[in-house]
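Hi R.,

Here are the chain sequences for the assembly we discussed:
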Amino acid sequence: MIVRRIVALAYKEWREILRDRLFFTLAFVVPAALMLVFGYGLTLDVERIPFAVVDQDKSAMSRDYLHRYIDSRYFDYKGDVASEREIEPLLADSRIRLAIVIPPRFQESLMSGRAVAVQTLIDGTFPFRTASSKGYVVAINAAFNSELLGSYISRRLGVSEETAQAMAQPVGVQLRYLYNQEVKSVWSIAAVLMMFVLMITPPFLTALGVVREKENGSIYNIYASTVTRGEFLIGKLTPYAAISVINFLVLWLMATQLFGAPFKGDPLFFFLASVIYVTCTTGIGLLVSLFVRTQVAAMMLTVIVTIVPSVLYSGLLVPIASMAPGAKFEAHLFPAMYYTDIVLGSFLKGVGLEQLWGKVLALLIYAVVLWTASFLMFHKRPKS
Amino acid sequence: MNGGPAENRVRLYLWWSRLAAMTAKELIQFGRDTLLLIAIAYLFVFDTYMAGNVGMQLNHAVVVVHDADHSAASRELVYRFRPPYFKLGGEVLDNRAGQRLLDSGQALVALDIPPHFERDILQGKPTDVQVQVDASNTVLGFLASSYAAQIIGQYGFDQTLARLGVTERSMQNVPMIRDEHRVWYNPNQNDAWFMPIAELLTVITIMAIMLPAAAAVREKERGTIEQLLVSPLTPIQILLPKVIAMTLVILLGTAVSLFFVLHGMFDVPMKGSLVLFFAVTALYTFTTAGLGLYIATIARNLAQAAMLAILVLMPMIFLSGAWTPPEAMPAGMREAMVLSPLYHFIEMGYGILLKGAGLDVLWDSLLGLALLGMVIFGFGVWRFKRQFG
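And here is the predicted structure of the full complex:
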C-alpha cells in the first residue's frame, strides 16, 4: 500500500467529480434540500382531523359536548350533516376522517340519570392516525364523563360539587415526556433526518462511480496499472467520503440552528460516530457498484438497499419496537437503525459512549465487513 | 403530404409498427439485465411483503414500575398494563433505576405509584400516579402516553363506580357517555393493510421515474441516441416506447404484487373496480414517467440522473399523505402536496382498494392527476424535442 498512489487516485477522482459541475453541485444540494423539505414538511403530529357531526338531539348539552371537539386543535369541524347516510360519501372521499353521531334524547337521558351511547365513526385507512384519533375521542369522553359523574355523586350523596369531582376521578395522571418535553416531532425528526439523508445520498454518490468505469471501459487502465486493489478502492472512495462528511456537518448545523433541535451530547463522540456511519454508507454504494455490471442495475440496487430500509426499517417513521420479528431482523441488518439510536441519544438524551458503545461497535463491524467484502469482490483480472 | 386515404393508412401503419418495434427493443434490452430484473422482482414481491410486517402501533412496549405502595390497589393498576400495547418489564427499586432503563432504551414507560396509594383511594383523597414516557420517538411516545392515561383514567373510574356500589348491570342507570367507536374500511386497524399498499405505490413511483430516465440517459451517455436520431424515427417514437415498455413492466409487477402479496398473503380487500385501479396506475405511471424524461433531458450521465431522481422522489414519497396527514401540514406545504401526482394516486389507490370508491367519488383526484399528467408529460416531451428535434 503506497500512500502516494492513493493520493494520486483520490486526486484523479476528485478532478473528475469537480469537472462534472452538475453532479458536484447536486452532491451538496440534494442532502441540504432533502433536510429542508422534510424538516418543514414531515410532521407526524395528528392534528386538525376533519370531522362532521350528526346531532339528532340539538340540545344545550349536545352542543356543549360537541364543542369539546370543535374547540380542540386536534379536530377541525367541517359542519353538521342531517343523517348518518350522508357520512359515508364524505368518509369515502376523505373530506372527513371522523364523524360523531349523537342520538336523539341525549340530554334527556343524561338528565334523568341514564347512560347514552355516542357513536364515533373513524376512517381506518391510515392506522396510526386512527389510533391517535381514537385516543383523542376517548380522552374527551373521559373528561366529559368525570364531570357527569361528579354531579351525579354530588346529587346522590349530597356532598359539595368540589368533593364530588375529586371522588369522580380519584387517580390523577402526571405525565412527563422525557427527552422531548413537548413531543415536538420536528425535534426528533430533524435529528433522525440526518440519519436518513446520510443513508441515502452517500451510496448514490458512490454507487455509480466504479460501475461507470466498468461500463465505459476506463477500468482497464486500472487493471493494467501497478495500482493494487486496496489502493484503488481507498483512493476511489476518499473523495466521496469527504463530501459526505462535509454534508454531515452541514446537516448538523441545519438540525440545531435552523430547526432548533437541542444537542445535549458530546460533539466529538458524535462526530466520530458519524464518520464511521458515513464510511458504512459509502461502503454500501461501493459494494453495490462492484456487484453489478450496468449503471441502471446499480441505481435500482441502491434503491433497494438504501431508500427502502431507511424508510421502513430505520425508526424514522416506523418504530423498531413495534415491528414483527421478521421485520425486526431486517432492521438489524442495516446500519441505519444503530445510527438512529446514536443520533437520538446524542441530541435528545445527552448520553455518550458508555450507553452507546454497542451501537458504535455494530457500525464499526458493519464498516469492516463492507470494506472487506468489497476488497474480496474486486478483481483486477475479471473472469469474463 | 396530401396523399390518398390508402397512403395515409400506410403511413399510420408504419408509425405504429415503428412504435411497436421500438417498444420491443426496449423490452428486450430491459430483459437482458438479469440483476435489474431480480432487483425489480424483489421490490414488487419481497419488499411489499416485508412492509406487511411493519407497523406503527404500540406493540409490547416495556413498562417498568416503581411501586411505593405494594397494595392490592396498586397491583391491580399495574396489571392493567397488558399486551398487546404494554408488557411489564418488572419492578425497580427507585426512580433513578427507572430513569436509567429509559436512558438506555430498555423501557419506554416508567410508572411511579406513590405511597399510601390504596389508602388515599379508599378515603376519597385524590392521588397522582407519575408516568414517564420516552418521547424521543414521537409516534411511540404519543401512543404510549395516550394509552397509559386511558388505562389509569379507566382504573380511577372503576374504583369510583365500585365505591358507589354500581355493578355492571346497574351501569345503565349512571349518567355517562358510552363510547362506541366504529372504525371503517380497516376495522381492526390492521397495519398489514395499510403498509403494503403504501409500499406498492412507493415502488411504482420509484420505477416510473427511474426506469425511463435511466433508459433515456443511457442512450445519451453511450451515444446510441445519435443512431436513433438519424433513423426515420421522430423524437416521440424514440421517447414513447421507453415509457410504454416501462409502464408494461410496472403494470405487470403491480398485478403480481397486488394479487399474490397484498391480496394473497395479507387479505387486503379489493373492494373497488380493479379495471379502474389499473387504469389509474397506468395514467400515474405515464405522468411520473414524464418527470423521469424531464430528468433525462437535464442529466448528461446516469450519476447526475440518479441524484436528480432522488431530489424529486424523496419529497414526493414522504409528502404524499400516506405518512403525514395532509391536514396537519404547514400551510404552504399543504398546497404543494396537491401538485404531487403521488398525492392523488394515494387518494385513489386507497379509495379504490379499501373504501371501494368509484369514479363518482374519485373524479376530482382523477382530474387532478390527468391535468398534472398532461402538463408534466407534455413538458418532458417538449424539452426532449427541443434538445434532439
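The first strand of chain A starts at residue 49 and ends at 55. Residues 74 and 199 of chain A are 33 Å apart (CA to CA).

Let me know if anything looks off.

Best,
T.
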